[in-house]
Specification:
By secondary structure, the chain is an alpha+beta fold. It has one domain: Arc Repressor Mutant, subunit A (Orthogonal Bundle), CATH 1.10.10. It is built from three helices and three strands. The longest helix is centred in the last third of the chain and has 10 residues. The model has no long low-confidence stretch (mean pLDDT 86).
């Protein structure tokens, strides 16, 4: 069982029909600024409203689909 102090609700969960502030998106994926910059260079759209930046869940899923290696195998295969 996970203790309350080690439990991080939503970590890793991105929903297709949601929009996330850049800060929340990074927290959920456990990534930093360098990873975001790399993903942006590789085509992940960031939406800007005023000074705030956002990532749409649908954009994230499309980004992952474009960058998925269809030829990967499990190590034991």
């Amino acid at each position: 069982m996970v203790s309350k102090e080690n439990y991080n609700p939503g970590l890793g969960e991105i929903r297709k029909n949601s929009t996330y502030s850049l800060r929340e998106f990074k927290r959920r994926l456990g990534i930093g600024d360098a990873a975001i910059r790399q993903m942006k260079r590789e085509g992940l759209p960031l939406r800007k409203i005023g000074k705030a930046k956002f990532v749409m869940g649908e954009d994230w899923f499309e980004f992952v689909d474009r960058h998925t290696d269809d030829n990967w195998k499990f190590e034991d295969e």
